[in-house]
Inverse folding.
């Protein structure tokens, strides 16, 4: 298994360009099931999760050409015949459940494995199922699978019981082909939901209100093909942004890369970073030492849970005490045990972590159980004294495109060892 060797002490400096957003590319790929016309997606990142989604679509019968170098995927779903997302794929990537809404809307049937628990909590999909049921599908759960059937979905008012990102995406996709109007209340406002809706509109869907808690969808008989460029990955950009601030570096970011990170940018300014917004981008300069700033994660536009672990790594060597509250997932502090091994001072009580900044971290062999936790350990390794060896790199490969290449271009001393 590959490991990443990080020699601490370098400052992240230089120009950065975010890859396409994993969490927007995944639903866009699933949305191609809604049409029999050819579709082209660009700015698709070459990541393990994307490979899993394309493998899933290919198993269903989609024809696909993916130019990984260019980031272009051409897909033709006209020959889809297998309406199933099997356990083996859903187990490795929960986002496979995004095929449920499109399949049942277009083919009247879907069989999707229940995802089960994952490293960051139970993560049920009850909201997805209730919403698709509200559109008239009959849902049966047996043998670990969801079986959804409907002759044609019918538009409805759908009150989501809680804010869920992929749940909102699933029901928006389903509603685009339902008969009549659907209204989703308490929808997720994440930029990735808006990006998916932009793509659906490019295919002819009629959607209004995305980016707000109430989304209106007028169902159509069918959707057409389309060309669409996936948005920049705000979580990848945010991870490098935090890395720049905590290493005292100076980086330039493209305009769109940080456009949806208003709150993290404000909080980093409060923590001592200097941030200049210019016409075509941003320049970020980290201080010698950050000052502790509290965060609480919550749905957009609050602080993203996908940057919580990275923020904690930054606070581990900041001046003062930071309180980090995780309000989205119930078990998302697995990075704490590893940060403690690197000399951090963190106490966890339920959903709250209290981080007392220490003078310096010390490099250590570490491993993580999820994607963003791994990113936080890379950041901790960048400021630690000595060498950090991160194992289980496959988590990082799910979500950070060309990580060691991008970090090295910014001056970090990182090497991937194949094993
Ligand atoms: C998406 C992102 C993930 C991010 C998360 C929160 C993708 C592929 N993944 O995950 O990176 O961390 O949003 O921003 O886009 N819940 C239920 N029932 C449901 C659905 C969700 O109880 O039917 C709960 C979850 O357990 C969690 C909370 O709602 O506690 C939010 O989860 P959700 O927004 O659905 O996360 P994902 O869409 O899975």
């Amino acid at each position: 298994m590959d490991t990443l060797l990080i020699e601490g002490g370098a400052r992240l400096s230089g120009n950065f360009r975010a890859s396409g957003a994993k969490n927007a590319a995944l639903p866009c790929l699933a949305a191609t099931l809604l049409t029999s016309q050819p579709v082209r997606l660009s700015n698709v990142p070459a990541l393990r999760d994307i490979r899993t989604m394309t493998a899933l679509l290919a198993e269903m019968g989609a024809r696909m050409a993916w130019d990984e170098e260019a980031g272009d995927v051409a897909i033709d779903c006209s020959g889809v015949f297998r309406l199933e997302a099997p356990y083996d794929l859903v187990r490795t990537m929960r986002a496979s459940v995004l095929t449920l809404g499109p399949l049942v809307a277009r083919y009247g049937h879907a069989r999707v494995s229940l995802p089960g628990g994952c490293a960051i909590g139970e993560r049920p999909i009850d909201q997805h199922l209730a919403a698709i049921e509200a559109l008239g599908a009959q849902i049966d759960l047996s043998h670990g699978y969801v079986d959804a059937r409907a002759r044609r979905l019918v538009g409805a008012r759908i009150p989501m019981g809680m804010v869920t990102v992929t749940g909102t995406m699933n029901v928006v996709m389903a509603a685009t082909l339902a008969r009549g109007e659907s209204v989703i209340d308490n929808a997720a406002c994440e930029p990735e939901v808006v990006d998916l809706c932009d793509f659906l509109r490019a295919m002819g869907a009629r959607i209004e209100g995305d980016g707000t808690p109430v989304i209106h969808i007028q169902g159509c008989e069918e959707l057409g093909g389309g060309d669409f460029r996936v948005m920049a990955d705000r979580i990848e950009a945010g991870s490098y942004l935090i890395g720049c601030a905590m290493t005292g570096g100076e980086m330039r970011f493209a305009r769109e890369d940080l456009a949806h990170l208003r709150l993290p940018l404000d909080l980093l300014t409060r923590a001592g970073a200097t941030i200049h917004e210019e016409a075509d981008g941003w320049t970020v300069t980290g201080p010698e030492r950050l000052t502790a700033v509290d965060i609480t994660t919550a749905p957009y536009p609050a602080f993203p849970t996908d940057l919580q672990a990275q923020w904690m790594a930054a606070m581990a060597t900041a001046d003062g005490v930071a309180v980090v509250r995780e309000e989205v997932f119930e078990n998302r502090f697995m990075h704490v045990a590893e940060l403690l091994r690197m000399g951090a001072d963190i106490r966890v009580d339920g959903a709250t972590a209290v981080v007392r900044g220490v003078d310096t971290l010390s490099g250590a062999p570490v491993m993580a159980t999820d994607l963003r936790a791994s990113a936080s350990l890379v950041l901790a390794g960048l400021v630690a004294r000595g060498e950090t060896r991160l194992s289980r790199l496959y988590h990082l490969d799910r979500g950070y495109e060309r990580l060691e290449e991008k970090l090295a271009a910014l001056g970090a001393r990182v090497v991937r060892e194949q094993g």
